[in-house]
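Give me structure tokens for this 80-residue protein.
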Amino acid sequence: MEKLKLKLTYLPWDVATRWNSIFDMLDYALQHQEAVDGITQKRELGLRKFKLSDEEWTVVEKLHMVLMVSHGATHVSLLT
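Here you go.
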């Protein structure tokens, strides 16, 4: 497998008091989909059960789009 050249970053956590945190997690996963797929395919890491199918990635994309509306509204209201 080819090594990805990405800057070290951290996956956002789901925080009960920050309802936008789910959007942040989905956004991060979509931006790093190639890395997520690569890591979950490695048997020796024991993460294969977390590999997302193409259909699951489609659900992630659709949910991301739905949450983007409320995420954008939150940031607009904070600026006014």
